[in-house]
Amino acid sequence: MERLNASPAGGVLGEAALGGLQECAGRIRRNVEQVIEGKPEVVRLALVVLLAEGHLLIEDVPGVGKTMLAKSLARSLDCSVRRIQFTPDLLPSDVTGVSIFDQESREFEFKPGAVFANLVVGDEINRASPKTQSALLEAMEERQVSVDGVTYLLETPFMVIATQNPIEMEGTYPLPEAQRDRFTARVSMGYPSASAELAMLESHGSGEPIHDLEPVADALEVRKLIEVVRSIHVSSEVNQYVVDLLSATRHAPELRLGASPRAGLQLVRAARASAALDGRSYVLPDDVQGLAVSVLAHRLLPTAETSVSRRTAEDVVAGLVERTPLRASGAVAAGRRR
To answer: Which CATH class is domain 13-230?
Structure first.
């Protein structure tokens, strides 16, 4: 497998660019970990999604730090941040904006909604109606908003970090398939370890550490990091492996809905970001395998039989990763995680 990537200018992605990315990402990670105790893998995934120009869905029971993770990442970046508290009475126009008739100018004036920001924190997104949830569809996929026949572009970076409680909770609506498919990855916070929970009680008991967080990067720096990630090389063998994984989900008897082509694109982008965080200018199968569950599982629909047997979509994806072979030479196969 080719180990170096040709940049758009024809050169080779240098160590300085990757070193700068690691240094900046490290600052952001350490800043967030001042608040999020004992969850380094969750913080890393949030960074991967940010650098992959994606969106993150944080799902878990109440009280485990979903909103705190979103707010910590937002506070670590010196860019525009808007928070949307999704409630049953929230309207689509509250999200996208609305045109208001100005009596003086006798013209309609557009008032931007909460989605016009670099980071949009959607708290408890599944408490709003599906109609309101769908207001985010165009913004998340095309990075633009259309209101009354006029299209407004959103600035880069643009990332939606949404939290939700499990759909079994009272007063929630399941996210539509089209909405879930626009989230690059889903992560569950999980309960902290005993040591992390003890540290949290000691540090959070007398105050809120998040109030002391200062920005450690700005929107311009994030845009530069995204450009570096776009230059990471993905070999044809790795691309073929991603296609084989997608095909496996579409033919798996345990699933009634497989992964979409969009899922493959986002898996490759996330793999690029993961490789860059590791200081590599090329993607390994390890990067794809390490992200497959987080990127693919929330898009899939298990069959009734699979649900009855208490197998989750995550279990199915993990099994498919183990069973899907690499059609590759020795250089690529050596990177496969067993």
So the answer is: alpha beta
